[in-house]
């Protein structure tokens, strides 16, 4: 989401430099670095963040002991730092979006066909930014309970309660496709092609997604 936020920031705040700054090669390198860093970081934390306690206080009850140092490191590098970057970028995007909205309303009566195309492109960029904003809010709602529970309670309550907040973390990934389907008709059409297996047909590449 940080990379997407950076993409939206450049597209809206520096549109003239977008094609030179956001190249396919740079995008591929950034995505690979994200995966590599995530695998290394999570691999280091895997054996330290949460451990099942051997001695249970009650019969048939499983306790999860949290290493606060690991959880704090995870909180800082996986949550606070990315969210801070996203919020700062979105504050700038919001300021530019508001100014562009005022500009479009003030000149809407005099735009030519060519300018109308530019206005529609700007609206598309702003819609993408709004969609990402919703994704970020859902991300916060799903991840905040986990970090709050892990930091507040050393024993992380019972394993069943831990399962609830951990479920929310994974459920966040399930919600993202629903959010995109809600905002983009072409996304719904693409999902329909995949579910109905029409994407396997030779003429699927010619399907109209707009």
TrEMBL record:
Keywords, in A-Z order: Cell membrane, G-protein coupled receptor, Membrane, Receptor, Transducer, Transmembrane, Transmembrane helix
GO cellular component: plasma membrane
Annotated G-protein coupled receptors family 1 profile domain residues: 1-180
SUPFAM superfamilies xref list: Family A G protein-coupled receptor-like
Membrane topology: Multi-pass membrane protein
UniProt entry tagged with the keyword Transmembrane helix: yes
Cell compartment(s), UniProt: Cell membrane
InterPro entries: GPCR_Rhodpsn (IPR000276), GPCR_Rhodpsn_7TM (IPR017452), TAAR (IPR050569)
Transmembrane segments: 27-45, 75-98, 132-152, 164-183
Gene Ontology molecular function, alphabetical: trace-amine receptor activity
One Pfam family here: 7tm_1
Protein name (Swiss-Prot/TrEMBL): Trace amine-associated receptor 6
Native species: Collichthys lucidus
């Amino acid at each position: 989401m940080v990379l997407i936020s950076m993409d939206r920031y450049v597209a809206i705040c520096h549109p003239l430099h977008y094609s030179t700054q956001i190249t396919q090669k740079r995008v591929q390198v950034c995505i690979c670095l994200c995966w590599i860093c995530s695998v290394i970081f999570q691999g280091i934390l895997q054996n330290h963040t949460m451990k099942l306690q051997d001695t249970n206080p009650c019969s048939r009850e499983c306790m999860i002991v949290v290493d606060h140092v690991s959880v704090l490191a995870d909180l800082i590098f996986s949550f606070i730092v990315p969210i801070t970057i996203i919020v700062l970028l979105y504050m700038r995007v919001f300021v530019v979006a508001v100014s562009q909205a005022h500009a479009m309303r003030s000149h809407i009566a005099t735009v030519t066909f060519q300018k109308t195309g530019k206005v529609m492109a700007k609206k598309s960029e702003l819609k993408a930014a709004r969609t990402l904003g919703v994704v970020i809010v859902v991300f916060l709602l799903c991840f905040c309970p986990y970090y709050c529970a892990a930091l507040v309670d050393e024993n992380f309550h019972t394993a069943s309660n831990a399962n609830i907040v951990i479920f929310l973390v994974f459920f966040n990934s399930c919600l993202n496709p629903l959010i995109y389907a809600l905002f983009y008709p072409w996304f719904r059409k693409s999902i329909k092609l995949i579910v109905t297996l029409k994407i396997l047909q030779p003429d699927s590449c010619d399907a109209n997604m707009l």
